[in-house]
Amino acid sequence: MNTPPILPPAMLGILGGGQLGRMFAVAAKTMGYKVTVLDPDPNAPAAEFADRHLCAPFDDRAALDELAKCAAVTTEFENVNADAMRSLAKHTNVSPSGDCVSIAQNRIQEKARIRKAGLQTAPYQAVCKAEDITEASAQFLPGILKTATLGYDGKGQIRVKTLDELKAAFAEHGGVDCVLEKMVDLRGEISVIVCRLNDENVQTFDPAENIHENGILAYSIVPARLSADVQQQARQTAQRLADELDYVGVLAVEMFVVGDTHELLVNETAPRTHNSGHHTIDACAADQFQQQVRIMCNLPPADTKLLSPCCMANILGDVWQEDGGEPDWLPLQSRPNAHLHLYGKKTAQKGRKMGHFTVLTTDSDTAFQEAKKLHQSL
Ligand code: ADP
Ligand code: MG
């Protein structure tokens, strides 16, 4: 643990150049570092802010060799090749580890680790072959059959009520490894972002209360409208999981708030910065991207203090006009307490995350109401 800190103007590398990579690059550049981005898309959002854009496939040997020359390397997307990260780790400082990334890529492994950490998940069973579906599976019904890998924004999920529906859903998923999860009495969804360098240097952000629309995150409200006690438990839960994984980097932990007692069940994790942490740019002492930079540079994470209640709203391609015409930014841009972030994506598509804005105000309810109203003005 005596790795020396990496200081500016060292070159930092990132696998992936989407919006998370873009905000990472902004943070790193602001802090005086140089940035290399690997992404096959010539229009990758992060490229605008990078000193160097390696425009090549993620498994391109020559590009990975270049990335290996960076003082440290991180990632911004979930399905990054874990082996590429392991091989980079032979040459440079890589965080998070390929092992942690690969656990988060598979719901079966992920849930097993959550349970191993002594934390709760929704009741579930793994379904990897047709014979795994037995009479005993009925205890997880009604439930959701989720593919073990590659699911996101509600994709790869089928809701099932009976054993027959379950069998049909497994066939519809093509017989790939799945998790059958019992439907729980959801009262809310929250996430906690953990920033961890080692046992002694861990910070958690305040839990965000997440509101989804059509399976995609629409709003994150902070502070979450939950008791101080539940919020504290949420932070401890997320930190315990990061400790269990000996995680180095920024880890997002999504949790369900269940039943009258607001019991917390861990749903899933993302081994990276997270959409529900975008408010940290405008509303926290240090944001999640600065934390990612600090940790990959062996520096302790900074203070995560929330400076104002706020609500982050995602801006999807849906609000662009049919002909690609821009939404009306004026109402939003005229507001002194609203902060717009656009990701520089060339084409707007339905459901595509094009940007976000964060409203800072007196309390969570007002922030949420204002954000909804401003979103409607687009
Ligand atoms: P994704 O990878 O698509 O985000 P999630 O596992 O987070 O997949 O599921 C998407 C959404 O479906 C959740 O945010 C939640 O609203 C709902 N959901 C998922 N699992 C359950 C469950 N066991 N009980 C009730 N609702 C669930
Ligand atoms: Mg989710």
TrEMBL record:
Keywords noted in UniProt: ATP-binding, Ligase, Lyase, Nucleotide-binding, Purine biosynthesis
EC number, as in UniProt: 6.3.4.18
GO BP: 'de novo' IMP biosynthetic process
Highest taxon of the lineage: Bacteria
Biological or metabolic pathway of the protein: Purine metabolism; IMP biosynthesis via de novo pathway; 5-amino-1-(5-phospho-D-ribosyl)imidazole-4-carboxylate from 5-amino-1-(5-phospho-D-ribosyl)imidazole (N5-CAIR route): step 1/2
Keyword DNA-binding: no
Function: Catalyzes the ATP-dependent conversion of 5-aminoimidazole ribonucleotide (AIR) and HCO(3)(-) to N5-carboxyaminoimidazole ribonucleotide (N5-CAIR).
HAMAP family the UniProt entry points to: PurK
Protein name: N5-carboxyaminoimidazole ribonucleotide synthase
Organism: Neisseria gonorrhoeae 3502
